[in-house]
Every structure is written in C-alpha cells, then in structure tokens.
Amino acid sequence: MSLSVCVVDDDERSLKDFVETLKRIPELTVLTAETDPVLIVSKILSGVIKTDIVFSDLEMPDLSGIDLCNQIGDRAVVIFVTGHPGFALEAYNTDAADFIVKPVNLKDILRAIQKAKEKLIARNKLMLPASDRCIFVKLSPRNVSRIKLIDLLYIEVDGKYISLYIENQKKPISLKKSLGNIYDQLPPELFMKISKSCVVNMNRVSSIVGNILVLDTGSTHTIGSTFMTEVYEKYDSI
C-alpha cells in the first residue's frame, strides 16, 4: 500500500531529520515538509495537496497540532510527533491515529503508520465540493482568517502587497506576499492566472471578449498577451 505524507514542524532541524527517516520507508512518498502549519492546512483544504497522512508537531506558534488535526478533519490522517509526552492525553482526545515521542525511532513510526492505515481503510474519503473548500491566510502573527474559495473573486498585485477581493466585503484583504505564493495554494481547476498581476476565480467569469475578462460582479480585468492562449484554452470545451 503506497502512502503519501506531509510533515509539519516549526523546528527546521527536527523537520529535516524526520523527513530523512521517513525516506527510509519504501511505501511512503513525502509530498511536502513545512515549518508553517497554516500553509499545510490551506493546501490540504483547498485541494492543492491530496495526502494520506500528516505527521505534525504539537506545539507550534501559529497553529497547534491539535488545531491542525481538527481543521483537516477527514481529509488526511494525522500522526502527532512531539518532544512533550505530557500532551499525550490531550492528543488522544482528537481523531489522530497515533502519538510519537521524540527522539523518534523507526519502530515507533512503523507502528503509527499501521494505525493510520487502519483509519484510512475505515474512512469513506470523499472530495469536498467546491462550495466547502477554503484557504487560511495569516493577517498578522496572531490573526489567521478562513476564506471560502467560492467567495474569493480575484487577487491583484498592489505594489509590494496583494489584494484578495472577497464577495460581500467592501475592502479587500491586503497581504505582504507574492502573487505566486498565494496562487500555489489555490486549486488549478478553480483559479487561473490571467496576467502577471491578476488571478481570477473561473467559476465567477461572466464573459471574455478579446483581452477583457468580466466577472459576474461586473468587474473587468485585462488578460496579459502572454496569457491569452492559455485563458481561451480553458474554455475550449465549453
């Protein structure tokens, strides 16, 4: 049984060492290893990453492993990895498959993987409908916001920032990130890049005439010349 896994730990050294250990297990494919739990949650909930197992640290500054487990739900099976055995009781009250105490050894990892397999077999895994998919964005060190993808109309570059335009919100959400950074978190079947400075929700497109794209809200956007062919190919089958 081949399994895809993600790893999240805010300690870069621990993260690197743990990934090297996982690579010794032939049935595992490590999709990504991150120090930011918010990013992992966003990618999983938006469908950018489809993984079987998430190995997660418990104590992390922006999002705890327990919160990560609760937010992911049935999208993946979580295995906690921590240097603090005192958190075991709280961890076991979640839907996580197992709890590994650092320093880890291969025997403990294999035991946890077996428990994760049992959960995967027991679960009826279904793709989330587009209306339920979302991403999480960090507005400040202690402020994380959930955005439903169905409500995300478009994203534009604004100097050193990007602006996320959300339906029924008067002002856009401004983030000091690159457009590429946020675009990588979005499912390609729902969003497309129409220029170097703009990404739009394909489900909200009303019309395209020449190089002008109009959303169902009435906002107009110019398609970049190098993006023209790709944009029209998206709608060839319609």
Structure notes:
With 238 residues, the protein is an alpha/beta fold. The chain has two domains: 3-122, Rossmann fold (3-Layer(aba) Sandwich); 145-234, OB fold (Dihydrolipoamide Acetyltransferase, E2P) (Beta Barrel). Helix content is 26%, strand content 32%. It is built from seven helices and 15 strands. It has helices spanning 12-22, 37-46, 65-72, 88-92, 106-122, 179-183, 228-234, and strands spanning 3-8, 28-34, 53-56, 77-82, 98-101, 134-140, 143-148, 152-158, 161-166, 173-175, 191-195, 198-201, 205-209, 212-215, 220-222. Strands 2-1-3-4-5 form a five-stranded parallel beta sheet, with helices on both faces. A five-stranded antiparallel beta sheet has the order 10-9-8-12-11. Strands 13-14-15 form a three-stranded antiparallel beta sheet, with no helix packed on it. Helix 1 (12-22) links the parallel strand 1 (3-8) and strand 2. Helix 2 (37-46) packs parallel to helix 3. The longest helix is centred in the middle third of the chain and has 17 residues, at 106-122. The radius of gyration is 20 Å and the shape is elongated.
CATH superfamily of the largest domain: Response regulator
Strand-pairing-aware structural class: alpha/beta
Low-confidence stretches: none
Q: What's the total count of β strands?
A: 15
CATH architectural designation of the largest domain = 3-Layer(aba) Sandwich
What is the CATH C level class of the largest domain, in words?
A: Alpha Beta
Question: Largest beta sheet, briefly?
Answer: 5 strands, parallel
The side-by-side strand order for the widest beta sheet comes to 2-1-3-4-5
Helix content: 25-40%
Order of helices and strands: EHEHEHEHEHEEEEEHEEEEEH
Q: What Rg do the Cα atoms give?
A: 20 Å
Question: How much is the average pLDDT?
Answer: 88
Beta strand % = 25-35%
Oligomer: single chain
What name does CATH use for the topology of the largest domain?
Rossmann fold
Net shape = elongated
